[in-house]
Amino acid sequence: CETCKQEVPGDCPVVYAAHAGYSRQWHPGCFVCCRCAEPLVDLIYFWKGGHPWCGRHYCESLRPRCAGCDEIIFSEDYQQAEGLAWHKKHFACLECETPLAGKPFALANSSLLCTICSHSKR
Q1: 70, 85, 91, 92, 93 from 100: Cα distances, Å
Q2: I need a surface site. Which of 15, 16, 76, 115 has the fewest CB within 10 A?
Q3: What is the Cα–Cα distance from 22 to 69, expressed in whole angstroms?
Q4: Alpha-carbon distances of 8 from 5, 13, 33, 45, 87, rounded to whole Å
Q5: Matching PROSITE patterns, A to Z (predicted)?
Q6: What pLDDT is attached to residue 122?
Q7: Which residues are CB-neighbours of 61 under 8 A, at least 6 positions away?
Q8: In the chain, where does the domain assigned CATH 2.10.110.10 lie?
Q9: CA atoms in the 13 A half-sphere facing the CB of 98
């Protein structure tokens, strides 16, 4: 088995990944996403960098995920701050919904606040 490196008995079902070639095999419980370890045996999986990926993490490896709505951002026009990304329309104060592009803001636990709402929370 590629994951656990244990021998697979001849009577045990195995998983083959077409892109990995038929020389590689996994126990069904060992065929998991390389990022989150989600079991992939009954799911659509993706192959990248020599490893299986779940759909969520494969997409995140290609495009950023919006911290506001948790959806993949396909547009090239999005806002980034402190390692996170937002659709332009979601880069707004969580309390008063004021758009924050080009304005000072506070970021706490992935939540955006304008300076006014941030000060009122103290």
Answers
A1: 18, 13, 6, 5, 7
A2: 76
A3: 40
A4: 9, 8, 20, 22, 46
A5: LIM_DOMAIN_1, LIM_DOMAIN_2
A6: 62
A7: 48, 53
A8: 15-61
A9: 14
Question: What does DSSP say about strands 105-108 and 84-87: parallel, antiparallel, or unpaired?
Answer: unpaired
Domain 15-61 has CATH 2.10.110.10: yes
State the DSSP string of 54-66. Answer: -HHHHHHHHS-BB
Q: How many CB atoms lie within 10 A of CB 26?
A: 21
Count of all residues that appear for the chain in the document: 122
Give the pTM.
Answer: 0.73
pLDDT tens per residue, range 53-77:
999 999 999 999 999 999 999 999 9
pLDDT tens-digit map of 32-51: 999 999 999 999 999 999 99
Which of 41, 34, 49 shows the shortest CA–CA distance to 17?
41
